[in-house]
Amino acid sequence: MRDDPVSLPASIDATQALLAGQDYVCGRALATVAFLALKLGRPLFLEGEAGTGKTEIAKALAAGLNRRLIRLQCYEGLDAGSAVYEWNFPAQMIAIRTAEAQGDADRDILQRELFGPDYLIERPLLQAMRPDERGAPVLLIDELDRTDEPFEAFLLEALSDFQVTIPELGTIRGPEPPIVILTSNRTREVHDALKRRCLYHWVDCPDFDREIEILAARAPEASETLSREIVAFVQKLRTEDLFKKPGVAETIDWAKCLLALDVIDLSPEVIADTLGAILKYQDDIARLQGSEAKRLLDEARAGLEPA
């Protein structure tokens, strides 16, 4: 990775171009809110169905700005300690036993050493407060909806002050706030108080033309004919009553699978063989067996205009 700092984009168009340079194709609305988040130093909260590109925008911004990407993957039961720091207890125990064996264990000195930087394990929120010569890192707080309300309350305070406190070491504040991207698949509602700290955008599945652009950027080996068939079929699939509709990520994965199989154009047989790339639940896959796949493919092709 290059070491030279990259300036923040000066306009919406520049933001859109920066993302496009990392093969992230987005509409002007998303580029606008991303530009404002960068310019105003506000966290960006992205909601939407899984697979619509919420996580990828953080990766694209980090790569385009040459900033460090720090990811906090949320899960049920995540607490402040796991998100900020932990002490390296095994190493501390070894140090204690070593000092005892050597017979020179001064309690005060040993305690200061044991709870010093050498035994501190930094987790994402603390890492995001550390200075970096390339500028503030991009902090991705991914799938926030998987956590519970106490962690939300802690995060609300952390995003307000952009500092963390470690009782043994004191308060640590970054030289500048990180670029914060929060995502949610909306499996539950995130509290309004946290949303008010952020700029908000709902990331939806793209329309046909934009999804073609995305596929051209992420799977350029696919022919125009195959790409149009893939996108038309997936978009038709999203209109069906499925437990989990495929996102853009599944479109890209499916295209790569088809390319690996040297598929030139879609057929009901090929669709049946590769449904696991776009559908992740057996009930949905079973629904597309037999004549259903052919029906959807015929309808998708009928809706295609000549390239």
Would you mind describing this structure in some detail?
This protein is of the alpha/beta class and 307 residues long. It is 47% helix and 12% strand. A 5-stranded parallel beta sheet has the order 2-5-8-1-9. Strand 6 and strand 7 form a beta hairpin. 31% of the residues are buried. The model has no long low-confidence stretch (mean pLDDT 91).
Descriptors:
single chain, 307 residues, alpha/beta, Rossmann fold, 3 domains, 5-stranded parallel β-sheet, two-stranded antiparallel ribbon, 15 helices, 9 strands, elongated
Please specify the SSE layout and strand pairing.
Blueprint: H1 12-20, H2 28-40, E1 44-47, H3 54-65, E2 69-73, H4 80-84, E3 85-87, H5 89-102, H6 107-114, E4 120-122, H7 124-127, E5 138-142, H8 149-161, E6 163-166, E7 170-173, E8 179-184, H9 192-196, E9 199-202, H10 208-218, H11 224-237, H12 248-260, H13 268-273, H14 282-287, H15 291-302
Parallel strand pairs: 1-8, 1-9, 2-5, 5-8
Antiparallel strand pairs: 3-4, 6-7
